[in-house]
Each structure stands twice: as structure tokens, then as C-alpha cells.
Amino acid sequence: MHLVMIGGSDAGISAALRARELDSGADVTVVVADAYPNFSICGIPYYVSGEVTHWRNLAHRTIADLEAAGMGLRLDTTARRIDVAGRKLLITSPSGAEEVLGYDKLIVGTGAVPVQPPIGGLAGPEALGAADGVHLLHSMGDTFAVMRTLETAAPASAVIVGGGYIGLEMADALTVRGLAVTQMEQLPEVLPTVDPQLGAHVHAELAAHGVEVLTGTTVQAITRGAAGQTGRLEVQATGADGTAVTRAADMVLVVVGVRPDTALAAEAGATLGFKGAIAVDEQMRTNLPDVFAAGDCVVTHHRLLGQTYLPLGTTAHKQGRVAGENALGGNRLFAGSLGTQVVKIFDQAAARTGLRDHEAKPAGLDPVTVGSEADDHKAYYPGSHRIAMRVTGDRTTGQLLGLQLFGHKHAEIAKRIDIAATAIFHHMTVEAVSDLDLSYTPPLGSPWEAVQMGAQAWVRATQQY
Ligand SMILES: Cc1cc2nc3c(=O)[nH]c(=O)nc-3n(C[C@H](O)[C@H](O)[C@H](O)COP(=O)(O)OP(=O)(O)OC[C@H]3O[C@@H](n4cnc5c(N)ncnc54)[C@H](O)[C@@H]3O)c2cc1C
Q: Do β-strands 180-185 and 157-161 pair in parallel, antiparallel, or remain unpaired?
């Protein structure tokens, strides 16, 4: 049995590891377009900030570890065409030579590519790029380009286009490096994946660390700065009230989301689904015989919504593992995502799982969201922090639909969101969250865990409807 994975990131490597775990005799080849298999691109901001001191430390596993696990790595090798009928893959080797690789089962894990928004200066023959200090950020190659700009041009200022989680992490990272950062977000609040009430806390944390945050601001163009101007670039935008906003900067980072990288699979006849991602069933099978797909290139099965597109590393790992098992003849199902995520912004963290009101309503649910606050541990013990919570439940059934949290980075925000993720996963009601037997000692918690207090606030508020 020869398995071939296209892509050497979370999905492709998880698939390869699982296949080798189940069958140490399986012949597994991973085709990777670059030389950085199994790198934690989620850790890029912490390498840029200097907290991770060497890019090699971002490797989940080294090349030697992967080879010891029994997979063959074809690095700097690009998959060009899938011959589904012949079960063959046309690849280009590092020398540029074309080669044909036969397979019994193929797993496509080509991931996502950064969205390039229609901003003047980013496209066309005169397009600005990394050499000018204008960057997109997704791969290790992009990271090296950012580091080159930081090390050779010694920028004093940066504009970050986009206030999603990667934009926020990079605002943190570049500020830590000593740059003056302006963050531009076209929506009314940063971190639009949480309700604006929590986004406003994130906004305040950025501002408290000196980041200039311009919300409701749409970037129109990036140009080279005029001679004598501070900053070698100029960013032109339209503010919330329609006025022109201009900022000079030494570097610009455009981080406005990703889109699934599907060209290879689509050309081979793969059906595309939600947001143009490769359609797969819960076993991660595409419509093509013997071809599976996983990770940021595929649609996401969501436990509450059915199908959506939610590109996340945690999900890519799970889907890859399912694809690897099923490619060997297994029958595993991807259990579905809840979009559980967390982001650190300077000294604070924001997290969410499940649905917000506007996401639940179109799914025929009857959502109510109730905001509340609680301490992370008993306030009499030093170092306690308030946690802001937004609990979303279904008014009709009482089912827990979602939770959003904001609080200090040491207030266990990530693990607290996981309480709700586990509860939603198992279809618990909001009220039943209060019944969970959770741990307590004053320096670390309260007799009623903060998430349980949030659940009780929801029950109190909805009983009055
Ligand atoms: C800065 C940053 C921070 C992030 N932080 C988080 C986080 O905190 N938590 C979280 O859950 N997620 C995070 N993510 C998202 C997470 O990294 C992705 O969801 C995850 O990497 C997706 O894995 P993947 O294997 O599907 O695809 P990708 O990581 O996109 O990898 C695709 C792979 O396919 C290869 N490839 C593509 N085309 C070809 C081809 N034709 N031939 C050969 N190889 C090919 C690429 O070289 C690469 O190896 C972050 C992403 C970024 C960029």
C-alpha cells in the first residue's frame, strides 16, 4: 500500500503519522512544496517577536524525527497534476525535473493561501512586495522575508492591515520588537470573531500597549513614500466617517484571512463546496476515487452548523489523522469542529467556542447571549483577575451554544473555553454546566468555577423572558 500526502503541514503530516502508527509496513510519501515539513506556523508571531529564539525551534518534529517515524519526505517538490484514473501524481523535483509518483491512496493537504485584498499597490507589474517591506504571512518563506525586512531595513514603524487573530498577534510581536504599530481594521471592532463587547476589551489592550487602532478603516492603497518622508511606505485608507486616513510606515503587513488552496484538486475533478473548499465527507473522502483531503483546503464539518469553512490548526490535525486512518481502509469519522480558538494579545487573552447569535439564528436556533463577569480565582488570594464572559444558549431548548471569554493571559482562558467546548460537544444545556464537578482551591479557582457562574447568569437572565 503506497500512500502519498500532498502537503507537509498539520494535515499532511498528521495523516502520515497516523498511517505509520497503524501500519508500520505502510509505504508513506509526503510531497512538500518547501523545505519546512511539520513547522508550527501558529508559532510564527513568537519567532518574529523574539520570544522563540530560532526558527528551527518552531518545528513540531525535525526531519529526522519524521523519517524515523517511517515517512519518506520529498521536500522542495511541488505536486502539479493528479491523474485520478491512473492513480499517479505528476511532481516537479527540486532540480525542476518532472517525475511521476504512483499511489494507491492520495491525501490532499494543500492548506490555504493568504487572501490578497483589492488594495492598490499589491498587484500588477509595479506591485510592492517583500523587498519593499510589504508582506503577507502564512509560510516559513513569508516569515523569513519578514525577518529580512526587520533585520536589514530596521523599520521603526509598521501598519498591519487586518485586525483578526493573526493581525493582533503580529501587532503584539512587532510592538515587543520596538516598532510603532498602527492596526487598521475595516469592521467596527477588532477581533470580529468575538462580539464587539469583548473586541472592545482587546482594542483597549492594544491601545494600552501603544498600538494605534483604527477601526472602521478600509485600506485603499499602499504606495512608496515620497522622498524625505518618514517611513518608506504610505498607507492610504478611508476612515469610518469617510475621511481620508494616511499613515507613513517602514513596513506593512497584510493579514486579512486565508482561502483554501484547491487548484490542484479542482483541476483533477474534485467537487468544491462551502467557500470554494474541497468537498469531503466526514471520513475526509473527496468525490474522487482513492483521494482524501484534509486541513485548510477542505470544508469543515461543524457540530452545530453542518458545513462551514473554519481553517484552524487543531482541526487540520484531527482531519489529517482521520484521513490517514481511512486511507488505510479505516472507518473513522471526523467528529466535527466547534471553531474553538484562543488568542493572546499582550497580557490578555480572548477565546470563543461554538456559536454567536448571528451564526446560530440562520441555523434555525433561538439564541440568547448573556454577558457577565467573574474572578478567575478567589479575590482574597493575590493575583486574581476578572474574566468577561458571554454565554450563548438556546432560549427554547436551554442548550449551550457558545461561549466567549476575555481575561488575563494567566486566567486560564484557554482551558476555561475548553470546558464549554466539551459541554457543547456533548450537547449539554447551559443549566447542566453548573452541575459539572469541577476543581477548586482558592489560589486557582472558586467553589463555583467562573464558567459555571456565567452559565448561572444566563439561566437567571433567560428565566425572566
Ligand atoms: C501566523 C499564523 C498563526 C496561526 N495560529 C493558529 C493558532 O494559534 N491556532 C490554530 O488552531 N491555528 C492557527 N493558525 C492556522 C493553522 O496554522 C492552519 O490552520 C494550519 O496550518 C493548516 O494546516 P494545513 O496542513 O491544512 O495547511 P497549511 O499549513 O497551509 O500547509 C499546506 C502544506 O501544503 C504544501 N503544499 C501546498 N501546495 C502544494 C503542492 N502543490 N505540492 C506540494 N506541497 C504543497 C505547503 O508547502 C504546506 O506544506 C495560524 C496560521 C498562521 C499563518
A: parallel
